[in-house]
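Running low. Any example?
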Amino acid sequence: MNNQNPLFQYCLRLADNSMILSHRLSQTCASAPFLEEDVALTNIALDLLGQASAFYKYAVEIEDKGRTEDDLAYHRNERDYLNFQLVEYPNTDFAYIIVRQFLADAFYYHLYQQLSKSKDEKLASIAAKSLKEVTYHLRHSGQWMIRLGKGTEESKQRVQVAVNDLWTYTQELFEADNIDEILLGDGIAADLNLVKKSWEEVVSELFKKANIKPPECRYFVTGSKQGIHTESFGHMLSDMQYLQRAYPDAKW
């Protein structure tokens, strides 16, 4: 991605995160534990897709090179996507889906709280709308964390395994680079140090309620802002992009 406009890159990251997590959740359609949860996860996926669309639209407006939101969403190569590796993690089982969602929801709840006060009015508007949706998402995933953690021995064991495995992907959520620093200085971006502090408080409190042990992790993955991905990402992207690449600019 050659465009180095900081605000363009910032919006692109936000869009990619919502887009990829939305697609992961969409893969669970018709496979949730019961019908009501199937509907809930699908609705969350649609919320995230709407957020991605809003950020992509703003990104192409900033770039002003004639591209569309579909171009950004479907016509880029693997290393051009800047989403967190956490949100692309495979749907191993229901516990992984819920833990991944909770960790992401807790992050975005506090991120969008700050961004809703951004000096960039368009970014603030998108964040404010997204915050209303993420508030519900966080409540939903948090309730499931408690339900699984305080449920049967198997559900408790499965959610603990998922927490242990996904924890290594959490610290890159808070890694700031020059784009974050530039926009933070301009009063546009969120302060990731403050987001991290609030995120840790929410996660710690929830773990106590759910009888989940905080992982002892010495290694954390990094590199999402440089286009680094997990092994599963390329396979997911080929499915996600197939229709657009097979039938470019197709109209329904």
Notes: The chain has one domain: 6-246. The radius of gyration is 18 Å. The chain is about 65% helix and 0% strand.
